[in-house]
Amino acid sequence: MNADHRPGDDRRDARGRQRSAARSRGDRTRTAQAPSQRRRGTDPARTAAYDVLREVDGSDAYANLVLPPLLRERRITGRDAAFATELAYGTLRLRGRYDAVLARCVDRPLERLDPPLLDVLRLGTHQILGMRVPQHAAVSETVGLARQHVGAGPAQMVNAVLRKVARTPLDDWLQQIRADAPDPLTASALTGSHPLWVTRALREALAGDGRDPAEIDALLEADNTAPRVTLVARPGLVSAHEVRAGAPDSVDLAPGRWLPTALVLGGQDPLAVPAVADGRAGVQDEGSQAVALALAAAPLDGPDERWLDLCAGPGGKAALLAGLAAQRGARLVANEVAPHRARLVERALRAVPDGVVERVRTGDGREVGEQEPGAYDRVLVDAPCTGLGALRRRPESRWRRTPADLAVLTGLQRDLLGSALDAVRPGGVVAYVTCSPHLAETRLVVEDVLRRREGVERLDAGAALRSVVVPGTDLPLGDRQDAQLWPHVHGTDAMHLTLLRKAH
């Protein structure tokens, strides 16, 4: 075989598009529909979802950055926009599950399919198994999408494969996948649509937090459930009551589950809420709010006048801290290494009264401790991490991250935490936060840093978190000094919090 010849190349037509197996064999069987009746394309919502998947795969783009401007540009609104969003995000979240199904319906390894064709098959499978779309519509519209984007030959294959998918209910597919898996963890990874290494790490994190490792399936399912949009009413700038009172009647706002600052939005555009539009409120997960509030509530010795957000971009936690600082007469410095993210921080802080934000500093957080030793009373280290705690928000991240990322990130995390401990004064408090429960990014980073220095004590992070929830609310946490939130338990991102106080 020629070294440049790939399996399947003999099925390509003159335009380079992949032909079906039947066409390549000379099988001239046709659908019963007349050519004039066959769908040549599909609707704008499905086309938009397809284009998002191609951008995510081909350009390493993030769906949450690609989809909204695409919908605006194509004037896709209302129910069509909601359909496109669920189709794109749901397909990305459940890609692993659907690939396990498709592998049982396609006559060749999935890696031999052209990526655009595989994305079309995934989109069709999600409509059949994951959405309330009639099967005939899911099949016919996806065949039209295939004909438009990958050619008539592959469209016939899409028709045949999706009809196989549709013949078996989802629960039966999942039962087959579990039965064929070599072990229970692999079964959970496939049916729960997470890479095996991520599934293993999450199960270990559950056990490390004193939880039952058998919760792994519930955790994976929570990762596959679209999160509600949560708003934060930034203290010192606006109250939750004022946010609700100032919102239009058409906007549905309900109290958050845990915090007096949190509000849950009922599906409308957040910018329809005036307090969000002018920066007094913002979009922020309740777990993200909680860890910032806990830092402000943690006990320290001595003055409480100067705070630092060491890794401030894009600015949500910085804005919340700035509101709290305004209430207390403190000042905030927000540091961010990337100039474009520093501009996002400045925008997030636009409603903060003059004099509260000392400056938005653009620089490497690893150098702040040396440049300003002992200069701050409270320091937040919201460290860059794998983001395994926010997979429900960025579903494509689970397929991009690899175990090799940990070595780079954990080294950075140790350096940033060390810099924060140098930057805080004796008696001051550091909050080490990650949006990941992975033990290598949480407990092991803290233990490694503390092993190399003396005069740092751990504070009870759980007690600090419980002190900021709505009075009378029971926040279930482990019995460790650090604290871990979970999507399947708390309905938040899986935020980790360790609180450290520097001894005098």
From TrEMBL:
Binding-site list for S-adenosyl-L-methionine: C311, A312, G313, P314, G315, G316, K317, E336, D364, D382
One Pfam family hit: Methyltr_RsmB-F
Biased composition (Basic and acidic residues): 1-16
The UniProt record lists the keyword Nuclease: no
Catalytic residues of the enzyme: C435
Any one GO BP annotation for this protein: RNA methylation
SAM-dependent MTase RsmB/NOP-type domain mapped to chain residues: 219-503
Positions of the UniProt region annotated as Disordered: 1-46
InterPro entries reported for this sequence: MeTrfase_RsmB-F_NOP2_cat, MeTrfase_RsmB-F_NOP2_dom, NusB-like_sf, NusB_RsmB_TIM44, RCMT, SAM-dependent_MTases_sf
Signal peptide: none
Keyword check for Glycosyltransferase: no
Keyword line: Methyltransferase, RNA-binding, S-adenosyl-L-methionine, Transferase
GO molecular function: RNA binding; RNA methyltransferase activity
Family recorded in the similarity comment: Belongs to the class I-like SAM-binding methyltransferase superfamily. RsmB/NOP family.
Name the record gives this protein: rRNA small subunit methyltransferase B
